[in-house]
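User: Show me a protein chain along with its predicted structure.
Assistant: Here is one chain, sequence first, then structure tokens.
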Amino acid sequence: MAEQWATFGIDLHLEPTGPGLRRGLTDALREAVRSGRLAPGTRLPSSRALAADLGIARNTVADAYADLVAEGWLTARQGSGTRVADRRVVPPAGTPPHPHPRERTRPAYDLRPGSPDLAAFPRAEWLKAARRALTDAPHHALDYGDPRGRPELRAALAGYLSRARGVRADAERIVVCGGFAHGLKLLGTALRARGARTVAVESYGLDVHWRLLAASGLHTVPLPFDRLGTDPGVLSAADAVLLTPAHQFPMGVPLHRDRRAAVVDWARRTGGLVLEDDYDGEFRYDRQPVGALQGLDPDRVVYLGTASKSLAPGLRLAWMVLPPDLAEETAAAKGGVDTCGVLDQLTLAEFLTSGAYDRHVRATRPRYRRRRDTLVAAVAARAPEARVTGIAAGLHVLLRLPPGTEQSVVQAAHWQGLAVHGLTRYRHAAASAEPVDALVVGYGTPPDHAWSGALDALCAVLPG
């Protein structure tokens, strides 16, 4: 039979082969399921429609469907049509990978850092804030806006950050951006335009941030790290430094007070800039909150915050508090117009000013603390060779492992359907310190009903 196109809601290329039409069609459909081109749950066309598309008898299609239903590849139900069965399909050796929908490739348990419990997003309160914000918004708010962001949100952020994080800010020095990475990209553009060449970074951090700086033409140099946090003693050759001082990611320690003072002194003495990533500053459990470094010198420290950990990454809302001259340059780097959704900005402004944001953070903080406590207790009881550190704040812990075991533990976790990251993936390629075997365990991501299962899966793969 010549190659034909059959309409399945999406185009599907079938190549029926074999000695007969029925067998050829059966083999072609089976291969489409096995290779993943037909995902579980996909509804197939009626036998009449497919027969018309392929130019063959309807009975041939009906018989092919019946064969595949009997084999378990398809399901047929009155009123629901014929669908691909929901079953695990293992492609034959040599079959190229085929992308599946995101929701079908998620692990059974996810302990990767970087996300809160999305099931805890305050939908009802957010909807109320959105309605109030949209009702009260002037018509011109829906027009092209100030590249710094909506004034309502910048004013609300100035008040909140001053009260909750000790940031010294006013609305004119705040620029709203579409996530931390967007803000860092804008800063990289502005710094490079100023003639900057080098940005010092922490030995352990996110490679996506280092790549963004590199894409702006900036060279990244890692700083030493020890029990007091990042050591700023070798900052002299840098034009700026990127730090997570309140809760270092991923090592989990705060920057020592002497080093906080030293890095600000360096900035004052050299004219350098400190880029402060306060990615999860709202979440602390066993200590007094560590105020923002920006409060020590607002003219030398750029403060970057985000709603990704406190609310949800999908909001794509973050903010920068900048020195006055850099605020203008960074806003210009946005292209002269606001690039963030106006309705979400107005909603977040209402969420902040109404007190809903504070209530949400206060409600989630003890829930995350309970998760952390059960994780620490379970590891101590069931995997005594592992040691949990960096537990005083944030949404992740560092789980130190016996030397030489990180790779095997990560692989075992993968086999168990558990997504977890090893510390190695966060180590800067030029870092001088000896590598440490550890897992970076994010306990914010799983919903409450999946937490005990995720914890069991974790303990099952740890050295005993």
